[in-house]
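User: These chains co-purify. Model them together.
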Amino acid sequence: ILNVEQSPQSLHVQEGDSTNFTCSFPSSNFYALHWYRWETAKSPEALFVMTLNGDEKKKGRISATLNTKEGYSYLYIKGSQPEDSATYLCAFKNSSYKLIFGSGTRLLVRP
Amino acid sequence: DADVTQTPRNRITKTGKRIMLECSQTKGHDRMYWYRQDPGLGLRLIYYSFDVKDINKGEISDGYSVSRQAQAKFSLSLESAIPNQTALYFCATSSGTWVPHDEQFFGPGTRLTVL
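Assistant: Joint model of the two components:
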């Protein structure tokens, strides 16, 4: 059984705070790690796809890092805004080419 | 217009009824997927199709069947719905090019309640 674990499960921060959360995945047979952002009542949308150990990706105030040797990825949000409130999903891809999702981190940013 | 659409968006049905959820896409993608999402769990793969003649079981296919009627359409059926199939169902598509980076594009979801 392949487990993808995300922590924390939920997070409440104040507007302007920076925050980060973790995705842990199997370190063997790694192909890619995907991050998705899912706002309530909307479709999950891709944020980043990372494939190489040490990869760092950035989109505005959101960035992500990847460590395939130890099997983890961090997602960082700098200066959180209320519109960042969403569930952040990570998904691991191995040679089966299927995505295996974590249960997500639900972020609430208070004004 | 949305690239991946799902119908219906919400459905309440009774135990034992047959239900079909439909997914259409205008992205021209070959690959299509059905997932279900339950509170506290990640998206779990039910079935996937890499082209019109290809159907594959996912992690939790029991109690479900699918039909890939065309490149753009992928339907999920519950032959005899049961209450533990109450969930949020997502359809997704991907192009299949450069597999590690094969980003999936999701529909808006169908909320199904089985009484």
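Chain A touches chain B at residues 4, 9, 31-32, 34, 36, 41-46, 49, 51, 89, 91, 93, 97-104 (CB under 8 Å).
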